[in-house]
Amino acid sequence: MDIKKSLAAQAYAQTRSAATAEPPPNSAEDSAARFLETFAETLSGSEDTARAAMTGGADPHSLVAALASSQTAVETVVTVRDRVVEAYQEILRMPV
Fold first, then answer.
1. CA dist., res. 49 & res. 38, Å (int)
2. pLDDT tens for the 96 residues of the chain, in order
């Protein structure tokens, strides 16, 4: 009889934890954090490759690939920044 109560209590606890509503994640904030983290990792990797190429530790092809990757990352960040500034200016133009 104790085993049945124990199993019932475990099943209840699992069902209860599955049924509780979790607060929705702040998707915009999480996305921005992941985006900036990926950007920083890309730039860091490109810098490491550039250092290795200067000391003879990397081939020219990997250097060009790293430079292209960092250029794309910077262009993406600039585009996102421009869109955010544009949205902010639109908000400022709204009548109160």
1. 16
2. 466 666 666 776 777 665 565 556 678 888 889 989 999 999 999 999 999 999 988 888 999 999 999 999 999 999 999 999 999 999 999 988
> Contacts by 14-17 with C-beta closer than 8 Å and gap 24+?
none
Which runs of consecutive H residues, i.e. helices, occur in 1-96? 2-19, 27-54, 60-93
CB 67 within 8 A of CB 50: yes
Residue 50 near residue 63 (C-beta atoms within 8 A)? yes
Catalogue the long-range contacts made by 46-51 (C-beta closer than 8 Å, 24 or more residues apart).
46/70
φ, ψ (nearest 5 deg) of residue 20: -70, 140
Which tokens go with 30? 């999480």
Token digits of residue 63:
């250097």
